[in-house]
């Protein structure tokens, strides 16, 4: 009987604790971000009256007999379910639509997590706070480094790119962009670019700084091999002009849309800074002019060369780059020199019009091309190569690791490799046509150009039914086996007439090294001018690197991605920070801390910090708050059953007491 009485006591205690949970839920029915709880019961210790027995052949087994001693509160679970949103009309109210918690920090450095996004602004400190006055954590400025969480200061711009730090303008149909690496000083930073032939030989760029304007002068006689080369020399000159120190704006970068590939021979300062001859230096539809030749141009396999006038020659090679994600087809190539046969391959992207190449009126005098000038030290066509050991261009076995003739992916048809070079060095050239002849052109270490022209005249003939391209020269031949619908890259577009054809310069079109030109391969459209005539670039309304205090802010706004912007009369609308969210592997394991806060526990897992809308976290809803997820109907039903349970357990005590009274009365 005493056991039953204590079971009733345990049951009443458990139901009283459940009533406490229900009362707390009902009390927080209008608390923003509140998550309801539920009490879970379990039975407790059992006393075994008789143990179970095993059955025999004559008698079955018996079950154990146990008597429990009441119930207990097993635990209180937090129901982390999404609740409805309430529109408040206040821009500083923010709700999380999905997973995640806001992070706040009190004055002692303790971090809490909350669903209640009632945010505010501390006018004294400038920090973004919650309704309890604790600091809201996130990223300052535009930084998204997860290790850089900090209090968000609304009246300070830090690590933010200034307005108009990049300035673009269209000149002669091309879009030029000048970009500062760092934030510029407040006000304007003007950069003026021009060209001149008055700079000393060897000085590619000169810069002066006066009254906030940087004047950059390019030597019209200097060559820049790439945009990187140009920008490096410009920034070096600016540093010198600034007393050996980099300017606050950092490195300046000049870029040109649709002109990301300079000819390998380079552009002169005059061509960059002034209206040029009307030809576009750059890449169009994946086909680019690889450069005005300063390297070798192989005439044909086994043909001899004779010296020409370098001033009358200006040649270029063609390389086609396949579009990203496309697969390449290759042409099988067979080269027969005397009694030997060699094979290789060339990419289909280097071919344009199906047909064959026929060599006529040519005679072969030797299988080896011999050169008597061992002092050539550089080749511009395909980079740098040490030719100091060059004695001959010999055709040897393809399998020989020291082979000389090579047809390789990314090289123009007719490429050659030179014996005797240092490891890793190579020279690549192209089969080129000028008045029906082919040539190689070289420049020695002193800059003197020498051109070697073949005495064999060739004809360029297209045959759409032939499955191969063959170059013949006496007993020697070069055969290229083509896949179906193969293209042979031999067509250029004349920028003057807009008609396709074989474009070249020869003795009838004299050129000099400072005025060499290059064509782009296009369909039938004319190339565009890439001129720049003393163009000013103004980086306006910039801000100095570091932090800038905003004297007056208004219109605080928070985006769905957590980006916090403010409006300032001087700076306009600027980003001052970004809210971040914390997600947990087990959000039900968070420890309630009061004031709508939770703290991480041993069973919640560590917080994963991310920006709203990423890594499975929810997006933010501005001018809204998440309501309590308490269901009053459920709570009232639970309250009724809890009351009845409490009453029933109290009856256990009453009945047990009556039974004990009857037992005592037996003695009377």
Automatic annotation (TrEMBL):
PROSITE patterns on file: FLAGELLA_BB_ROD
A biological-process GO annotation: bacterial-type flagellum-dependent swarming motility
Flagellar hook protein FlgE/F/G-like D1 domain location: 95-156
Family to which this protein belongs: Belongs to the flagella basal body rod proteins family.
One protein family per Pfam: Flg_bb_rod
NCBIfam families in the record: FlgEFG_subfam
Annotated protein name in UniProt: Flagellar hook-basal body complex protein
Tree of life domain: Bacteria
InterPro entries found in the cross-reference section: Flag_bb_rod_N (IPR001444), Flagellar_basal_body_rod_CS (IPR019776), Flagellar_FlgE/F/G (IPR020013), Flg_bb/hook_C_dom (IPR010930), FlgE/F/G-like (IPR037925), LlgE_F_G-like_D1 (IPR053967)
Keyword Cell membrane: no
Keyword tags: Bacterial flagellum, Cell projection, Cilium, Flagellum
Subcellular location: Bacterial flagellum basal body
Cellular component aspect of the GO annotation: bacterial-type flagellum basal body
Main location as per UniProt: other
Segments forming domain Flagellar basal body rod protein N-terminal: 5-35
Domain Flagellar basal-body/hook protein C-terminal stretches: 625-666
